[in-house]
């Protein structure tokens, strides 16, 4: 079983050159604003207030590093696609996100979060495409599973995979989570520790 013995906040910033330089592997979380990135980090680490969350989109504006077991990082990134932000703020966030994703050598894997309630959205499908074009390793996490019935959850996830398979030959690992009830916690942590074991 994958165990989180400790998790602590290290640093927030907008500049990847100021991120930790200890070379430890990083697992980063990205997705639309409000999809539940920060909540998932809290769920995985069993700390309610490690990452700041909000019911209003656009809470996380910086690259946030959390050190787990003194050994690897969870990285909370700002969300994309929040329509109510100014154009210049959206562009600035986009720059921060791209510089991290394209430039951060320590980033071992990017988890792309998708709200399980919604059918595939253009902005996410374009984001997957951009990751593919840039050879970025990623997995998919469906969030907020507690908000759907089992059958609706299963059909939404199946539909999503179907849409992705129209463009991709194979899919990366896919996880289903709820930060409300802890669903998927063990699976995601086990996957991270499997990868850590290969490094
Ligand atoms: P930004 O930082 O703004 O990009 O958002 P985020 O992706 O970090 O989302 P955040 O974790 O702040 O969560 C947004 C809202 O969704 C909050 O009100 C959370 O309580 C709620 N939420 C997140 N995950 C879940 C979940 O699994 N289930 C339910 N029911 N609510 C969730
Ligand atoms: Mg956040």
Structural account:
The chain has 199 residues and is an alpha/beta fold. It has one domain: Rossmann fold (3-Layer(aba) Sandwich), CATH 3.40.50. Helix content is 34%, strand content 21%. It has a 7-stranded mixed β-sheet, sandwiched between helices. The radius of gyration is 16 Å and the shape is globular. The mean pLDDT is 96. The site of magnesium ion has 5 residues, from helix 1.
Primary descriptors:
199 residues; alpha/beta; Rossmann fold; seven-stranded mixed β-sheet; binds guanosine-5'-triphosphate; binds magnesium ion
Describe the SSE topology:
Blueprint: E1 7-13, E2 26-31, H1 37-45, E3 63-68, E4 72-76, H2 87-103, E5 107-115, H3 122-133, E6 138-143, H4 150-165, E7 174-176, H5 185-198
Parallel strand pairs: 2-4, 2-5, 5-6, 6-7
Antiparallel strand pairs: 1-3, 3-4
The structure holds guanosine-5'-triphosphate (GTP) and magnesium ion.
Magnesium ion binds next to α1.
Using only CA atoms, what is the Rg?
16 Å
Strands, count:
7
Domains, number = 1
**CATH hierarchy: architecture:** 3-Layer(aba) Sandwich
Spatial gap, N to C terminus: 19 Å
Overall geometry comes to globular
The top level CATH class name:
Alpha Beta
Give the proportion of residues in helices: 25-40%
Strand arrangement within the widest β-sheet reads 1-3-4-2-5-6-7
SSE succession: EEHEEHEHEHEH
Name the CATH superfamily assignment: P-loop containing nucleotide triphosphate hydrolases
User: What average pLDDT do the residues reach?
Assistant: 96
Q: What ligands can be seen in this structure?
A: guanosine-5'-triphosphate, magnesium ion
Number of helices: 5
Structural class: alpha/beta
């Amino acid at each position: 079983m994958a165990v989180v013995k400790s998790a602590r906040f290290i640093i927030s910033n907008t500049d990847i050159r100021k991120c930790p330089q200890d070379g430890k592997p990083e697992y980063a979380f990205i997705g639309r604003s409000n999809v539940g990135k920060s909540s998932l980090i809290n769920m995985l680490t069993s700390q309610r207030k490690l990452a700041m969350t909000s019911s209003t989109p656009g809470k996380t504006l910086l690259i946030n590093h959390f050190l787990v077991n003194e050994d690897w990082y969870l990285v909370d990134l700002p969300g994309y696609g929040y329509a109510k932000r100014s154009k210049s703020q959206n562009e600035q966030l986009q720059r921060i996100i791209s510089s991290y994703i394209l430039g951060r050598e320590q980033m071992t894997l990017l988890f792309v979060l998708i709200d399980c309630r919604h059918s595939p959205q253009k902005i996410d499908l374009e984001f997957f495409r951009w990751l593919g074009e840039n050879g970025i390793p990623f997995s998919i996490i469906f969030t907020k599973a507690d908000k759907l019935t089992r059958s609706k959850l299963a059909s939404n996830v199946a539909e999503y995979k179907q849409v992705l398979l129209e463009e991709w030959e194979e899919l990366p690992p896919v996880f289903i989570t709820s930060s409300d009830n802890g669903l998927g916690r063990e699976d995601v942590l086990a996957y991270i520790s499997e990868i850590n074991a290969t490094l």
